[in-house]
Hints:
Elements: H1 3-16, E1 20-26, E2 36-42, H2 45-60, E3 68-70, E4 77-81, E5 85-91, H3 92-98, E6 108-112, E7 117-123, E8 126-128
Parallel strand pairs: 2-5
Antiparallel strand pairs: 1-2, 1-6, 3-4, 4-5, 6-7, 7-8
Helix pairs in contact: 1-2
Amino acid sequence: MELDEKIALIARYAEEKKAKDILMIELKGLTDIADYFVIASGASERHVKTIVEYIETSVKKNGILPYSVEGYNEGRWVIIDYRNIIVHVFLEHLRELYDLESLWIEAKRYTMTKEKTTNTEVKNGKRKT
């Protein structure tokens, strides 16, 4: 499975569990951490855990297993490491606090819509679609 297909699957699974503000950030050439971040928000600790569980079990059906998962027991900020894709699922207020989106301001950004994935332009640290 191609990298862009994996990202689309992960984002779609997050969306199916009603994750909020799903954002994919392309980090290729900007850092060695990963090629992409997928960032999403949940309304409660239970919601965050539900999103994470669903992503994990759904992508596993496609033969994709995480290298590691951090923060699941707390359900406040969960990181699923798929090596070249790192998924961050936050409680809404923690996402605002840590503001990962602003760390790589020059990175390409993609958002989910019901119809397709769309490119998002960023100016002065704020997203514009």
